[in-house]
Amino acid sequence: MSIAFEHNRSQWEIRVALHELFRVHMMLVGVNRNPNKRNVVWLTKVNPTTRAWILSDRMITTWITSDAHPAEPDFALPIPDSFISCLIDLAHDDNGVDIFCNDQDGTIIGRCGSRYAVVDLPEGVTFTQANLPYRALPHGTQNNATMATVDASDMQLFADLVLNWHPRQEVQGNVYPFVSVEIGNSQFAWTMDWRRHGMFRTTGGVPAETSGTITTQFYPYPVAKLLKAHDIEDGVKIYVGAEDADYVYFAGDNWGIRVVNDSELNARWYYKLAIALGEEDADVELSDSERMSDYLPFDIQGHQCFASLHVSPDGLTEFGRLTYVVARNVESTIAMFEKLNTLNSAIAGASVVMRDDDVRVVCDFPLTDELDLAKTMAAFVKAIEQIGQAYEILPLFSGAGEGYDF
């Protein structure tokens, strides 16, 4: 099949160097996306003289940048993952390839001299704000972010230690340990805890130029693979907008990685807990953020409650808690605690506690693979009803009113 390139071709053309395409290929290797899916790499301009290749997969987004001609288009072009290898093959003869489109056929063309490859322009894909490398932070800003600048060799040490402990077999709960990272006091330090899987806890630390202090967690394996895939020559900047920011960033002069700032506890139990609550006829409110929360608001029999996830101080025991706030802004007095003790003596399977000037009904339960909340929920709802009856009789609390605030 012969193609008349000069007819119905786009008014724009992008010249891409061979070394640039190799860097894109290495990003794909690092992310290791499912080759059977219709995944795309986005090619777009981020300023008049800079273009970016951006790809995302679940909790990770990564990109590289390179020089762009001012005449290059400003829109985002979706290029199928599998077409990158074809562009590399074409670019070998001339250390580069020209990319343009056929507006009538809806195709993307890579051409080098008389050699060319063509692929259909992907449909049903949309470039959104979520695809941009740097996203607005709902908690904090990049201007006051905690930051560490780490030498390239030390960053490779971090990546190697993460990947060297990557097991070949499945692990308990099918969730690998997250990494806990601490930035501050001129150091970038990390810990990975494999004890739950019968292995070891490992810790490392390297010198760093730091601004601010923070401790956070994220899923490290795609980050480590990308740190090995990117061409890192100078220092790497790692920064987090705030303790509850949505993302942790790793960035160099012409590349970057964005990973969701999340915890292993939430990753392992958030959706399992939501399902278990739903099985008990609770109306659960799921978070719409990429970052999973450690609490789940829910409504049960007209009562606004929330479930939360917790871990013991030694990090070995995980448990959940159901909470119903009976009253807020309650004065802590001896008489109040005596009344709470009286109520607790009449309640089975739950407790009435004073916490942060709130009176709460709480019910703790173990987090297990076969999570069954039937007995826990029954005891929890019964306790709420008992407290409600007692409250109608006794003026126990000031500032009463069910609900929760976060």
Identify the notable features of this structure and list them briefly:
elongated; disordered C terminus; alpha+beta; 406 residues
- Our count of helices gives 7
The major pleated sheet works out as: 9 strands, antiparallel
Q: Strand pairing plus helix content: what structural class? A: alpha+beta
Shape: elongated
- Kindly report the oligomeric state of this protein: single chain
Strand order across the largest sheet: 5-2-3-4-17-16-15-9-13
| Count of strand segments | 23
Give me the Rg, rounded.
Answer: 27 Å
Q: Helical content, roughly? A: 10-25%
Distance between the termini: 63 Å
Beta-strand fraction estimate: 25-35%
Mean pLDDT: 86
Listing every helix as H and every strand as E from the N terminus to the C terminus, the arrangement reads: EHEEEEHEEEEHEEEEEHEEEHEEEEHEEH
Contiguous uncertain segments of 5+ residues? 398-406
Which helices and strands occur, and which strands form pairs?
Elements: E1 14-17, H1 18-31, E2 40-47, E3 50-57, E4 60-67, E5 77-80, H2 81-91, E6 96-102, E7 107-112, E8 115-120, E9 146-150, H3 152-164, E10 179-184, E11 187-193, E12 201-207, E13 209-211, E14 214-218, H4 221-229, E15 236-240, E16 247-251, E17 255-260, H5 264-279, E18 283-284, E19 295-300, E20 303-311, E21 318-327, H6 334-345, E22 351-355, E23 358-366, H7 374-393
Helix pairs in contact: 1-2, 1-4, 3-4
